[in-house]
Amino acid sequence: xxxxxxxxxxxxxxxxxRLPAREDDRQALAATVREVVARALPDTLPRDRAEPLRQExxxxxxxxxxxxxxxxxxxxxxxVQPVDGFTPPVSIIESEVDDESDQAPEQVIAELxxxxxxxxxxxxxxxxxxxxxxxxxxxxTQLRRAVPDEVAGELPVVDDRQVVYxxxxxxxxxxxxxxxxxxxxxxxxxxxxxxxxxxxVGTDERITDALVMLFDAMMTTFRWTDVPxxxxxxxxxxxxxxxxxx
Length: 246
Hints:
This protein is an alpha+beta fold. It has one domain (8-17, 73-245). Helix content is 30%, strand content 27%. It contains five helices and ten strands; from the N terminus they run ββααββαββββαβαβ. The strands form two sheets. The protein has a seven-stranded antiparallel beta sheet, sandwiched between helices. A three-stranded antiparallel beta sheet has the order 9-1-10, covered by helices on one side. A hairpin with a 2-residue loop joins strand 5 and strand 6 (134-145). Helix 1 packs antiparallel against helix 2 (47-70). The longest helix has 24 residues, at 47-70. It is globular, with a radius of gyration of 20 Å. The two termini are 18 Å apart. The relative contact order is 0.17. Mean pLDDT is 82; it is low at 1-5.
């Protein structure tokens, strides 16, 4: 794979951060993580209590993003500040891939949607989308994450709602941007590991639905920024002011 060359804007909600994941971006990643931690744990907190938390938070964020970068991600988007005391267990992985076949984007998208058909979350949704005026594939699935045998009974089983947008870069033939959203929730029908009793409630599915809607709303702000011989629109200029740049 060649170096990523696609550029775009996407607005992220307040309290979210885009963390660059490529190996070449390690210095920028470290700086971004320091800024995120500084906002979460300001200097006004007692140093003896806050400093260990800062170090642990920096370590976890760096580890998460570096691991994603090692598997091909170009960036990771995370909510890094709670809203009303709640930080949703969600993430977005941004990556770029090259398609060395001679297939037209429409054919690739048709195959992606056909492959996803048996497992898609909403069978009424064909998955075809428009992103910045171009065709894209949206797939949505829900997976039950099994617990490894060696830690069975210690870790809870979780559901993982995954939504993936696969977007051809219109001015870079063969290049694709993939935005993968993941929301973790507690199943309503799983017994608790310690007691074997089924819980009265798990995660309200409406919360997960709302988080998926948030991601879909974010994707409506997706705009290409390096289209040859095309001047940015007023909307794109405004997005550049308030959004994150990839």
